Amino acid sequence: SKGSRSNTLYVSFLIKILTFSYWDFKEKMSFFLLDNGKLTRLKCQAAWAHRMCQMTELVLFQITVLGTPAEESGGGKIDLIQAGAFADIDLVFMAHPAQRDTAIFVLHRVAVKYRGKASHASAYPWEGINALDAAVLAYNNLSLLRQQLKPDWRLHGEKQNIQNLKPNIIPAYSELEYFLRTPLLSELNNLKAKAEACFRAAGEATGCQVSTLLSSGHKGICNYLAGSTDFGNVSFVMPGIHPFFYIGTDALNHTEEYTEAAGMAAQLHTLRTAKALAMTAVDVVCCPELLQRVRDNFRQAKLEQK
């Protein structure tokens, strides 16, 4: 624990190496964790840990293999950060299959609720306040906004939970859920302000009450590493790397084709990546000067991200 650390050489070499596995609740931890085109082999992680122990017998360190379910929408790593799971870890390693190196975007989820007043659409339409109209206007506002956004900014969403969705009833309630993405955390506030103006304008135009709920979301990868991952949140707590590796297919992630490709033939690529992470960890464990440079660069990167 941190309370037992001292200012000895042991401290410099005490390093917890962390890798993440994906958890498929439906499959109850099958040997290959395949979920919508993602691939992780637990055996590779175990071999990695064992190899590290063999190669660094004279160096004190600790390896932690931590499974974190629900990466994109649930934010399992965010919950673990808040619970203190990373409090005593020095470096983190994670790898993800992909066709090429890709940017990691900051992601924030926005839930928007419009409350109006139900009425008969034919007999008394003037008595109603149409929450569906508000959702449609907000959707159109954001669609028009895209023309003025930077090329690497993203916003996308959908309409949800439309109450009384019948031709002869003016809906009194509607919801929107949107994802806002930017490469840098510092850019997100600008995009949020633009999006919130679109949401509010739709409510004012229709007379609906508007409420927005902004989630904590996923941060980008610190150090400036168009998807998003909650590993970005971890990288703002401690130094880490998140390389991508090719599994022998040009199919896109999160597709049925990619899931099919992430089978036995892809395991060799996964094993090679696990070995590369292990050797990177060996470099850091065996070189305290490198570890210090990593920490110094991490502190500087955090200052630049503010």
Q: Quick one: biggest sheet?
A: 4 strands, antiparallel
Helix coverage percent: 25-40%
Distance between the termini: 30 Å
Q: CATH superfamily assignment of the largest domain?
A: Zn peptidases
> Which CATH-level-2 architecture of the largest domain?
3-Layer(aba) Sandwich
Q: What is the rounded Rg? A: 24 Å
Q: The CATH topology of the largest domain is what?
A: Aminopeptidase
- Return residue spans where pLDDT drops below 50 for at least 5 consecutive residues: 1-44, 218-227
Quote the beta fraction: 15-25%
InterPro entries: Bact_exopeptidase_dim_dom, Peptidase_M20/M20A_hydrolases, Peptidase_M20_dimer
Protein name: Peptidase M20 domain containing 2
GO molecular function: dipeptidase activity
Family: Belongs to the peptidase M20A family.
Give a nutshell description of this structure.
The chain is an alpha/beta fold and 306 residues long.
Write up this protein:
This protein has 306 residues and is of the alpha/beta class. It folds into 2 domains: 188 residues, Aminopeptidase; 109 residues, Alpha-Beta Plaits. The chain is 37% helix and 21% strand. The two termini are 30 Å apart. The N terminus is likely disordered.
Tags for this entry?
306 residues, alpha/beta, Alpha-Beta Plaits, 14 strands, 21% strand, disordered N terminus, Peptidase M20 domain containing 2, Peptidase_M20/M20A_hydrolases, Bact_exopeptidase_dim_dom
